[in-house]
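Sequence, please.
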């Protein structure tokens, strides 16, 4: 097993970041030990056991004597930057975005979640009229600057530079006095049994709030996100009204969604 740095100079980190780092060590080493992690992070062994119990519940790890082992094939990937995401499956995202933008009609009140697919939706809304859009995505807002027929609202909050998105109490509270017709939700991972998930705990909490104030929840994602798992669950798959994705969706996922009564709109690859 790789050695663990036990230097006394430690930076205090939150629960979400600590669990992300535990996942990274699981990916690198295949296993972790409670006592080693307790020393590394400067927290109690009880805290570490709670972390490992959470990861086991998420299907990421299996607890073993004194530590935990990784679940093969279930560990979430590390989060890429917005720039990296933008370079992936661009053609598919634009096809998905075009289908989504066509669904937005005059008078609609819409939430565009942060993300690269929702950014593409915003880019295609320059000719839309009499539409209200709220977003927590800085890149999404920038894409709507030239859309004169779109009234733009921002959630505000703390900026998370990795995703160019705002989060936190201010962002969540900004939604509480509104009702929206449609939420277009971008996701990092979707699994029929474990639901829709994302890499960041704060973004997951804000996404759940978005789901509460929207009449329809439409997930926009390319097919590479299926049968994957990220650390923080947003909602159960059954709460989704529609998914717009591409024809590369795994057959079992397509059938499972349709069996659950979820509308699936496929765009050509």
């Amino acid at each position: 097993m790789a050695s663990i740095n036990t230097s006394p100079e430690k930076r205090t980190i939150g629960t979400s970041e600590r669990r992300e780092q535990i996942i990274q060590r699981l990916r690198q080493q295949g296993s972790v030990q409670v006592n080693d992690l307790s020393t590394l992070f400067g927290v109690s062994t009880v805290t570490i056991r709670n972390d490992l119990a959470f990861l086991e519940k998420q299907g990421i790890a299996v607890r073993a004597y004194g530590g935990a082992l990784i679940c093969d094939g279930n560990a979430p990937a590390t989060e890429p930057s917005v720039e990296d995401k933008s370079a992936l499956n661009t053609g598919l995202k634009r096809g998905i975005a075009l289908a989504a933008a066509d669904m937005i009609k005059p008078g609609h009140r819409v939430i565009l979640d942060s993300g690269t697919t929702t950014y593409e939706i915003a880019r295609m809304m320059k000719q839309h009229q009499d539409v209200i859009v709220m977003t927590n995505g800085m890149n999404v807002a920038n894409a709507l600057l030239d859309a004169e027929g779109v009234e733009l609202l921002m959630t505000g909050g703390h900026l998370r530079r990795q995703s160019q998105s705002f989060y936190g109490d201010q962002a969540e509270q900004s939604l509480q006095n509104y009702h929206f017709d449609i939420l277009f939700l971008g996701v990092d991972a979707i699994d029929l049994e474990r639901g829709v998930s994302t890499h960041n705990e704060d973004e997951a909490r804000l996404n759940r709030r978005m789901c509460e104030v929207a009449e329809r929840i439409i997930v926009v994602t390319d097919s590479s996100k299926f049968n994957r798992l990220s650390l923080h669950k947003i909602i159960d798959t059954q709460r989704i009204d529609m998914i717009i994705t591409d024809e590369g969706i795994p057959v079992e996922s397509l059938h499972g969604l349709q069996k659950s009564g979820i509308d699936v709109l496929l765009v050509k690859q």
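The two ends are 43 Å apart (CA to CA).
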